[in-house]
Design brief:
This protein is an alpha/beta fold. It has two domains: 86 residues, Up-down Bundle (Chorismate Mutase Domain, subunit A); 169 residues, P-loop containing nucleotide triphosphate hydrolases (Rossmann fold), CATH 3.40.50. It is built from eleven helices and five strands, in the order αααβαβαααβαβααβα. A five-stranded parallel beta sheet has the order 2-3-1-4-5, with helices on both faces. The protein binds shikimate-3-phosphate. Shikimate-3-phosphate binds next to loops.
Length: 261
Amino acid sequence: MNDLEMYREQLAMCDDKMIDALIERNALIEKIVSYKKKYGLPILQPVQEKKQEQRREERLREQRYRDEMEDVFQRIVRNGKRVQAHQLFNYNIVLIGFMGVGKSTVSDYLSTMFAMKVVEMDQVIAEREAMCIPDIFAVYGEAYFRDKETALLVELQKEKNVIISCGGGAALRAENVAEMRKNGRVVLLTARPGTIYERVKDSTDRPLLNGNNNEAYIAELMEKRREKYEAAADIVVHTDQKSVLQICEELVRKLTEQERA
Ligand code: S3P
């Protein structure tokens, strides 16, 4: 064997070691998730995640190929989150609830923590129609928009392990709820009318609140919808006076508890 062949052989062995290390790493991630579930510990631990990241950065600091290695690690960490997400949720997480309740904020946070894909229904419909939501309502009417929501929900049932952030009216049709439930767990987020009003008062992209953007109207519309929202939900999370981390932690805990039951 000449030197070149020997180096190549050593390189292949190096890859083998990395594969073994990754297998071990994924198994450890699974063990950590199982442990947290078993002892009822919070699944999301952003502070611990930060510590791990700092430790790694320190080790890589003096390295000649620091940027390249950091790039690899970011992917490894991301894939670790995927492993965690697959272990926890072999279904879609469907977020429903009134406008301004925090569906988009919660889905963004969950997506960062679990590296899960998010489908923001309003955004997908607006992109496909090449029009903003108020224009779709104005040009084609609400019924047209509602049909687009139903069609999108049907389409999404071929997905697994994605977060679906629904428009506030999506859970009002029984056929939509049936679609959500085929492959998903339905999470209802709630907030008091006053909290909702504070969040949506400057918004212009919610046609149903145009000219009616006040707390009394919000309270009335919420009350009209309440029964349908509650009937659609597998779990409910109240969001008033909670941080997004607290909301997401409660959501994950309730979903995993329900799984066990
Ligand atoms: C609606 C809520 C909106 C959007 C549309 C109708 C509703 O979504 O789908 O304006 O009927 O509650 P958000 O809940 O994301 O604001």
